[in-house]
Specification:
274 residues, eight-stranded mixed sheet, five-stranded mixed sheet, alpha/beta
């Protein structure tokens, strides 16, 4: 599914991926990131920003960069991830960092006969740093990790997981959206709003999720209908349209004045007919 907004491509294999593609990743804005994070969290999707460069440098392959907590990397890195090879280096505020498994580090140190103080002195870091990295998983400066591996004569650097970024709650932008959300919450749904997307509301009830375009005017909805339908197919999530006007489309539709008398089971029945 292709769309131009907080993401450009929605794809699915084992999991859902939401990709934003830009030449210069510094042109990615915080509002886009917030919407992408909300959408990704609700869909349990992996958000990714794919680009060629920042304002200052080209993106190196097999390194994860950061833009507003969205994992950012080159097209070649994306290709490697799709084929099962995760990057090991994280670039943040000018520094290069990696991760080492705490248990593996402690085991390798003890098998090599080093105390924490001895390893720290050999590598050029503090004993406290060795202790902390043996206690819990923390990012460590890349060059220090390489020195530790050399001292212990073993590989310790781990592939980086693409973690789900924290998403702040986005408020509805209109009284109409707020009223629709209130009706869905009355029915037992939790609702989130997301913009720069083919739809603007996500409703969740237990294992059931609904993507919904909520707008008073049908002409604003109609231009999004093909994108909503395609996105629904890719993500395997149900879709519904809520408006104040009659609209003829393939997606299940409700008028705002129908909502007060409905229950969650009525929404499920409507979707099931689709």
């Amino acid at each position: 599914c292709e769309y131009s907004g907080c993401f450009d491509i929605a794809a699915r294999r084992e999991s859902i991926m939401l990709l934003k593609i830009l030449n210069n990743v510094d042109s990615f804005q915080e509002e886009q990131a917030n919407n992408l994070k909300t959408l990704s969290n609700d869909l349990d999707a992996k958000p990714m920003l794919i680009g060629l460069n920042t304002r200052r440098e080209a993106l190196s392959d097999n390194i994860i960069y950061d833009r507003f907590d969205i994992p950012t990397f080159s097209p070649k890195t994306l290709e490697n991830i799709i084929h099962g090879t995760l990057p090991t280096i994280f670039r943040f505020r000018g520094g290069m960092f990696v991760e080492i498994d705490p248990a593996d580090l402690k085991k390798a140190r003890e098998e090599s006969g080093f105390s924490q103080s001895q390893l720290a002195e050999k590598v050029g870091i503090t004993k406290k740093s060795v202790y902390e990295h043996e206690s819990k998983k923390l990012k460590i400066v890349y060059k220090n990790a390489v020195r530790i591996e050399k001292a212990l004569k073993t590989s310790l650097i781990m592939p980086l997981e693409l973690k789900m970024p924290y998403a702040a709650k986005i408020k509805p932008r209109s009284a109409f959206e707020g009223k629709i959300s209130q009706n869905f919450r009355r029915m037992g749904f939790a609702t989130d709003f997301v913009y720069q997307s083919p739809f603007n509301m996500i409703a969740k009830e237990r294992s059931f999720m609904l993507i919904s375009d909520v707008d008073e005017k049908k002409n604003r909805i109609q231009k999004n209908l093909p994108y909503i339908s395609e996105f629904s197919k890719v993500t395997r999530k149900s879709a519904i349209v809520v408006t104040n006007e009659e609209i003829n489309c393939d997606i299940p539709t409700l008028k705002e004045d129908e909502l007060p008398g409905l229950k969650s089971r009525d929404i499920r029945k409507l979707i099931k007919k689709w």
